[in-house]
Amino acid sequence: MAHYDLLVIGTGSGNMFLDKRFARLKTAIAEEWHFGGTCLNVGCIPTKMFVYPATVAEEAAHAKRYDVDASFSGVDWSDLQSRIFSRVDAIEAGGREYRMSDRQPNNTVIPEHVRFVDEKTVITDSGEEITADRIVIAAGASPTIPDTPGLDPARVDTPGYPIVTSNSIMRLPEQPKRLAIVGSGVVAMEFAHIFSSFGTEVTVIARGPRLLQDFDGTASAEFTKIFTADHNVILGAQPAAYRLGEGEGAPVTIDLEPSGRMPDVDLPASVEADIVLIAIGRHPNTEGLDAAAVGYDTTADGRLVVDDFQRVYAGGKPVPGVFALGDISSEHQLKHVANHEARVVGDNLAIDVAAGAPGAAGEETLTRSSHKAVPSAVFTSPQVAAVGMTEDEARAAGHDVTVKVQNYSDVAYGWAMADDPGIAKIIADRDSRLILGAQIVGHEASMIIQPVIQAMAFDQPADEVARGQYWIHPALPEVIENALLGLDFSPR
């Protein structure tokens, strides 16, 4: 049985904090998959490297709208993959090599799946038991695979099987001619944009009446209106069964049934596609770790329970020396949140080590995580970005709410874009004048939301943000300025 001062499970954001503060510790890193985790290998980074050329292709295809004579004739799928993954794979390999090299003499990489035997002991798939004084659990999350007739979960993402997740769709050997996407959330909408822009015939199968339903109702409705105008979307439907054709390359038939979320839906009996992307959500990897089985507390959706110091709980109390971060414990499945939590874990782990025994550090010495004004964005077409509460959430929380929805077409840059559709919605408290939330649907939403994030993070009143600084004219952020100016506040 091997014993370590510190065991880290997962190398996404869990690989960030191991710096010179921990150089003298005997450390093990357990990673059964790719170094860099979801973001680097199958998430944020490669998807955006596909999104950008997809947006270029879409703009070329729609150039006539702007009186420009241009066209799109296709994408070199192989070269595009090579450009993207030559960089991604090199970074992954470099991260692995660094942790395994002589530059990290006190570090051991365990390239296997591990699961807990007790709170401070894990066992590898090959049968080796490992104990550690301190543990950081950063094992992330995985795509959820539904239990649907005709779908073999064990074969999803394996070579030749035509049903895939975000883990493998970007590595397909050929661009599919027909792609069916099951789901209507962030992952589904980004890949719908990518593949439809590249010329694939895309069909989206959505259970609800709107796309991106986790966003504010106004933003979700606006996005659905824009997206369905140019894409084949079937609302209120779900797969009843999958029927795979005989032989490699044979199409998949998806039999449809009403989801029950929309009344009186008129659905096609089935949809046929060459590849099916399952994008119905992601779940934390706690089950594969046997975390609950050894007594770690978990939420209803399977996440590890942590406190503001990122300490893992068991029996309602923090386990001395055990921390968690990222998707395995956070309700925000976002890389920027995981990175923040990794910094907090690094600080608190260093304090814990300096205190002597695991858990000996007083809470007054520890750093708290902050999940105030957490933003998110969907890199589809049009982009969607959000921060803070939705309007419904703000009203339910008891705020006296003031809301302004500003059209992109109301500002000069919107005119330059030939009145492309898009909105910015700002929600604020009428009395305090503080911004409670914002949702943006439109061109570069992920960028122009930043002034709102900053205002919320530093408690800047909305009217001061609007009037207390210059806004470049005629830049697109004027849509934010005008939305802020349109809020109706109580007299001072």
UniProtKB/TrEMBL annotation:
Domain FAD/NAD(P)-binding: 4-341
Enzyme class per UniProt: oxidoreductase
Bridged cysteine pairs (disulfide): C39-C44
EC number: 1.8.1.15
InterPro entries: Class-I_Pyr_Nuc-Dis_Oxidored (IPR050151), FAD/NAD-bd_sf (IPR036188), FAD/NAD-binding_dom (IPR023753), FAD/NAD-linked_Rdtase_dimer_sf (IPR016156), Pyr_nuc-diS_OxRdtase (IPR001100), Pyr_nucl-diS_OxRdtase_dimer (IPR004099), Pyr_OxRdtase_I_AS (IPR012999)
Reported cofactor(s): FAD
UniProt KW keywords: Disulfide bond, FAD, Flavoprotein, NAD, Nucleotide-binding, Oxidoreductase, Redox-active center
GO terms under biological process: 2-oxoglutarate metabolic process
Residues at which NAD(+) binds: G183, S184, G185, V186, V187, A188, M189, E190, G281
Single annotated GO MF: dihydrolipoyl dehydrogenase (NADH) activity
Keyword NAD (UniProt): yes
Active site: H473 (proton acceptor)
Residue ranges constituting the Pyridine nucleotide-disulphide oxidoreductase dimerisation domain according to the UniProt record: 374-483
Family: Belongs to the class-I pyridine nucleotide-disulfide oxidoreductase family.
Entries under NCBIfam families matching the protein: PRK07846.1
Protein name: Mycothione reductase
Organism from which the protein derives: Brevibacterium casei
Lineage: Bacteria, Bacillati, Actinomycetota, Actinomycetes, Micrococcales
